[in-house]
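A favour between colleagues. Tell me how you read the following sequence-structure pair.

===
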Amino acid sequence: MECWGVLTAIAAACLLGVVVSQTTAPKLAPTVMNTTFIENVTETTTFSETPTFSETPTFSETPTFSETPTFSETPTFSEKVTATTHMILSTTSPGCSALCEACVPGSYSDNDSMLCSCCHEPGLCLFTGACLPCSRGFFQRLAGQQRCLPCSQGFYTNFTGSPVCQSCPPGSYSNNTGSDSCRSCSPGFYTSQQNATSCSPCQRGTFCSSSSCALCQICPAGTESLQAAAKECTPCRPGLHKAPRQSMCQICSSGFFQIHWGQETCNLCPENHYCPSPDVNPILCPGVAFCPEGSTAPGYCMETFFRKAGEDCELAPITIALLVIGGGVALLFVILLVLRRMRDTDGELSLARQFLLTKERPQGQYYGIPCDAEPVYAGW
């Protein structure tokens, strides 16, 4: 009887193992190979498996054997499928090209990606988010393109996904293609144009002391720049000056002077002084000379014949005497010339008269007058 109870217990244990092995089979997860994910196309499946087992064996080792094995198996399966606009398609799906979209401006299609390579036309991907943005320094203004274009010289773009390039502002330049930034003009150089490819040196008389200059400035009054591409101005030397609107220092005019550096104007040489050079102090005029304002040299009266009288020169006494004597001599000389001329004239008339009186004429009459008649001269 005791052996029978043992055999019954062993049989019940074997039966329980078979039942448990059948009800606790391993769950299998679906495997998707070679798939392509599409934006707004997904599939979500949720499995909930809750097997419940209740086994209550009861053994009573009494003269009466009672075994009541009870098995309660309640497997519950709950499958929840949630479908949204996302779904998974195979790369070999014949409907891939029908779902493709053109890449927007500022992006291009990546043929190395399965999201774009399944599309039969270039520049398309399964969705626009699969397109790659243009790198910095590159742009693409059209949709559905396979590559981006580099920015031309004088243009740049400093962010990804740019549909256009921007012009370099004045004071900067770009001399390379595909630039993501513009270079600033160095001090002494400038550019006033947009999309410039180089900077120009400041001309003489102008300067630029900082970078990114759009225009060079004229040197302030009293200063100048002697060379191009100047970063600063130098003061005018003594003897020179420069007005605010002039570009270079100018030498002082005749009769003016300037002995200081960096001056805007020159000074007029004062009275009773003379200024032989514009970069020296005025020199006091000698006592025997006269020097009005703006004199470059002292003025002297002619020695012996003139003398200084205030601000003018007057004739010396000896000069007056010489003038009187010279005038008398000249008058006498004129009188002698006149008398000699008169004498010469009288001699010529006498010779002419004698020639007419001694001339022989043929006999006869001329114009009703006898040829032998004496000539009559009026006034004789």
Observations:
- DSSP finds three helices and 34 strands in the chain.
